[in-house]
Backbone:
């Protein structure tokens, strides 16, 4: 009989060395959702889009030739930024692109949140924010969500440190209104406010149109979710020209060419084929509403979602158990074993077939 | 009559804003070589490879499907790192990959050079090093080159701050011997030493085999030069497992997925098609020797090059003038109008036809 020795790579003892600086030692790195390979897996754990990118995007990638790959890409990504500027009705100098919106956040934290003041963000939010704070030695100040898990912008302290929040928030999927964001901007005028709109395609109202009005507003978005390009790493930020210029200066002091030639070509093609993206987004929204209804019928409490995922409280405190059973059945969702979240599951919206399988597994 | 108002975008007045932090204000960003588009340009200014990547690499990119692009790439790039580990005879945990070697340097500076001590590097070297020091507030300590522009490792102060240098050095192209690097490692044991081997494919001896022996040695390389993939952004670092783990921790606190699905696929195919890469590299070396001979015949002093570029002192102090005239004729080379470099041109090695055009332009 064989005895299987299971070693969890995630929790192995880290090798220590005297060469690690305080910077390395103080880090608790971000842990992305599991990328389990192969087999009969329904992957609802990393908020990926269930539909492939537009055929035009695939064609644009195939058209990039060897001569373009042997050369450095345009370090300023002018053609891609121009396409984004036209699409959103802003100027070229209002647009910044990066290697996924995570890189943009990492650069923005370094550029704008290292001013020696605390950074304010919701106490339940994207878990990369505290990681960036550790990396740069920024003091975090967390703002409590309401009892219904919504984010009241009234709770932020204007002009007492920079502000960042996702809209819609993660992992709750709850959106904040355009008017509430604008109202906070009217009060918070002295430091930067970064609105992280990674999931805005699925329901929240973007505040990109406000960048001309508020010189301290930075808005980040991504091609990973609505535009089905998580594998390509492409993010974008919008802001006042001086704010974007500051971000460019930090980027050009970190890595001149973070957006490669293929990502630039694919991004341009994705913006051009807007109809495809609108269709897949609407399908995901429809599937989300079906999923919410099915989960609610089964005793789940589901927060109102403006994202491509739902945050659902399992009946009778069964979230942890359900997470494990779903995983064993090949349905991956996201679960955090932390006090405020331990009764909840974050479930990405897949195809109708994916969600039918989820519901069937829950019933089983 | 129309009056043309010429505005140089490079030197426009930077927009200032009260939102810029000290971090942004203190930066003098890196300026990459000009990426002039179109027309009849011979581009010998950014050390790009004149040959396209292997057909197998192009095919690997075309084989990546939409399902792979809608999903996040493997954040640990295990397959690519395994291929690199096998190729170089090291373990998987000795290999780190990033979005170009510039990103790796940026992360390594943050991980290992922010210990409050000065960082030692040559006074004539890759001009991104002082930029990273500005970004992170690291104190630089520059080490003078010899009169013949070679780098004597004897001049570094062992254990009095971390060390970084390129081998071969840039923009001089002069290599340091394996024995000299090993000898410095025997003396410098208390802080990290980073050997930047961006150009090692063209003549220097890599110290990758020493990573098992010296736990403070980090070696960086790139796919941009020898492997003709500047457009794709792929770099690699080798080191002791604990040193690489520290770099992973910083990377996973900055951006989980810097290497996209296409870059991972292309990198794997590039390593597999080693014969192609060896052939193009040898051709470039042969062309370099021809170019050195032609330049020397015309009164240039050319430093011994172990890179895919040459550093050449123009006769009679004509470097600045020659740079301008070559640029007007469509032949781009690199020139720095700084005291120690103002008599020199850095000329990338292109195809034989490119170099014949260069020589013809010089003769004209």
Residues:
């Amino acid at each position: 009989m064989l005895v299987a020795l299971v070693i969890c790579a995630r929790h192995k003892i880290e090798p220590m060395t005297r060469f690690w600086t305080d910077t390395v030692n103080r880090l608790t790195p971000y842990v992305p959702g599991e990328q389990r390979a192969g087999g009969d897996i329904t992957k609802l754990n990393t908020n990926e889009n269930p539909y492939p990118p537009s055929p035009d995007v695939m064609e644009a990638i195939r058209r990039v030739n060897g001569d373009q790959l042997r050369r450095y890409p345009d370090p300023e990504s002018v053609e891609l930024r121009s396409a984004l500027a036209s699409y959103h009705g802003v100027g070229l100098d209002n647009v910044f692109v990066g290697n996924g919106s995570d890189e943009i956040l990492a650069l923005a934290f370094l550029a704008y949140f290292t001013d020696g003041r605390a950074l304010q963000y919701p106490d339940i939010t994207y878990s990369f924010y505290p990681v960036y704070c550790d990396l740069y030695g920024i003091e975090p100040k967390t703002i409590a969500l309401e009892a219904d898990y919504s984010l009241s912008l009234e709770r932020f302290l204007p002009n007492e440190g920079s502000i960042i929040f996702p809209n819609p928030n993660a992992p709750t999927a709850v959106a904040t209104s355009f008017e509430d964001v604008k109202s906070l901007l009217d009060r918070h005028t002295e430091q930067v406010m970064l609105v992280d709109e990674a999931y805005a395609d699925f329901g929240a109202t973007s505040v990109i149109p406000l960048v001309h009005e508020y010189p301290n507003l930075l808005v980040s978005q991504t091609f990973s979710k609505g535009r089905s390009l998580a594998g390509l790493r492409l993010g974008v930020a919008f802001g006042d020209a001086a704010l974007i210029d500051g971000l460019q200066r930090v980027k050009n002091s970190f890595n001149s060419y973070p957006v490669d030639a293929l990502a630039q070509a694919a991004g341009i093609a994705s913006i051009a084929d807007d109809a495809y993206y609108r269709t897949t987004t609407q399908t995901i929204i429809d599937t989300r509403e079906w999923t919410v209804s099915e989960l609610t019928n089964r005793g789940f409490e589901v927060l109102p979602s403006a994202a491509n995922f739902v945050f659902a409280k399992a009946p009778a405190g069964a979230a942890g158990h359900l997470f494990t059973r779903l995983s064993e059945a090949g349905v991956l969702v996201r679960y955090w074993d932390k006090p405020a979240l331990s009764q909840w599951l974050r479930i990405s919206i897949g195809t109708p077939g994916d969600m039918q399988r989820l519901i069937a597994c829950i019933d089983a």
